[in-house]
Amino acid sequence: VYNTPYGAYPFELIKEEHYRDAFREAIAEKRAEIKSIIENEEEPSFENTILALERAGAKMELVSGIFYNLLHAHSNDELMAISEELVPELSQLSTDILFSEPLFKRIKVVYDKREDLGLDEEELRLLVNCYEGFAENGANLDAEHKARLEALSMELSQATLLYGQNNLKDQKRYKLYVSCSDDVEGLPNSLLHLSSERAKQEGYSEGWLFDLTAPSYFPFMQHCRNRELRRQMYVAKMSVGAAGDEFDNRALIRQIVNGRFEEAQILGYPTFAHYALHKRMAKTPDAVYKLLDQLQDAYRPKADEELKEITAFAKQEGFNDEMMPWDWAFWSEQYKQKFYNLEDELFRPYFALDNVISAVFNLATTLYGLKFVERKDIPVYHSDVKAFEVKDEDGSYLGLLYTDFFPRDGKRSGAWMSNFQEQYHDANGVDHRPHIVLVMNFTPPTGDKPALLTAGEVHTFLHEFGHAMHGMLSKVRFGSLSGTGVARDFVELPSQIMENWLAQREWLMSFAKHYETGEAIPEELLERSKKARHFLVGYSCLRQLSFGYLDMAWHSIEAPLDESLDVKRYEDNAWRKAMVLPDAPDNCIMSTSFGHIFSGGYSAGYYGYKWAEVLDADAFALFKERGIFDRATAQSFRDNILSQGDKREPMELYVAFRGGEPTIEALLRRDGIIQD
Q1: Active-site annotation, residues
Q2: 221 is in which domain, residue-wise?
Q3: CA distances from 616 to 67, 497, 501, 624, 670 (A)
Q4: pTM for this structure?
């Protein structure tokens, strides 16, 4: 389509004013394609109905692939305005397709005779997914219920979008200006330089400006000695979306939760959690609660012991107040420095970003035979972004990988992997390879220093790179089954298994060298790191479990929430059993900025991170047994999981790789809860 290497998108030619027309043309084209399927006078078949529907909307995939990636990674007021403006039209298109009776009638004809069509496994999976996708959106309902479901779908699209935008706008407006040098004592030099530069950009002649983005907020909370400033930052972070103004998300939470509950009821499910989970590995809310409770029971003694230890240590250091949430990161870091001497800053000099990139790419070469080459002739959407071509061991082209590592205005916080284009085969059997983007918010280069990462940031890189491998190595025919388009509680296995290599000395020694001297990371530092691996493992687990309980509580309601509902009280009750620290003030509400579950696709799905930890610990145990660079084990992981997308049930894929279903024992061993 474009005169660029591998058909890469020419971002420099795409202007904001192009999007409205492009979307409307794509909408019209998709409507025409759907109309053609419906009006086809031939007997409905897999080819003229299911396959035709799968291939409809190619232009829409292209336009939305570009637009929504940039909306999150390189946004501005105009893109946000276009996004809001287009929600009704895009939602209407989606609902018109999902609620089309003549279209569903054709799909049902094919579905009802599926066993007689001679379909292969992948074709049958596509057909069943297609039929269930319509049925679960009410295609079998009467006109009244169908109309209500259609209206709900549009209302929820707008509410979840607004929730996310409120978060972005509310977080962006908070700044903490500090002018007294005593108040920044103990802060890392990298953070001081970053915040000093930010202060100058905002017109201050001196001082430091901190905000709620990850590279500013987390090191500030870990190292700031001024308790009152920590409290202010914590309260600001935890009251995003709860300020009682135009960005307040509490009413939207009730609207979203009630809307999802009503959806589930119309479709015949007792709760939204039942509806969301029946297509996942977990299958039922009972299975989720069983996992959360099992882990809560296993890790609670360790978490309570950790709270006592950190509190006693803080008291010895002269801290006599109650340990509050804004104290925890600071005193944990002080404890870690004293007993393990392992603050994040010790690792930074050995984790220069360029070295880390090479090491992660080389790991993919060792495991899967992949080759990465930077291409400066491939257009990018911002000067920070780099583009790489990825080839397989035999030299065949696998896809493009874009990397976007540093924070900037208009970029969402956090880290994620996404596609500009997913892998699929077209009508001529040509394999279209994916264009994948990795987006992070790493600490940028400061002064004459290169970008130096913390161990946590390397961990994040490995995680998102695992998602990229899932997309890059996809080997399916149908785009809707490709790459990361799998069950929510399975999608984190490829990402989380990659994190395991960070704890392997053999891999670390291959690249962790001082950015100035070239000296290898000291053995003694690695030894201390190994001892500290289980530091706060109980607290960290319960914190994740608390988010899982909170998510399930919002999505397990059996009656609509009343307008008088106190979101803070509801939240406190939901996650109380997994709490370790005392409650925060009333204006600190996690739910009002819990984008994962209210605007990010993880509704009734946050438990999936822990579910995937059970999987990744169990899976990595096989690498530990056979060798962490064992090519045959990696090839099996690639063949049975990474390349398969959603071609088969996730548990079938897992068992094909591992030889059996997972248990929690490998995770408990890895975390030191069970001692060998």
Answers
A1: 464
A2: 174-239
A3: 33, 5, 12, 12, 11
A4: 0.82
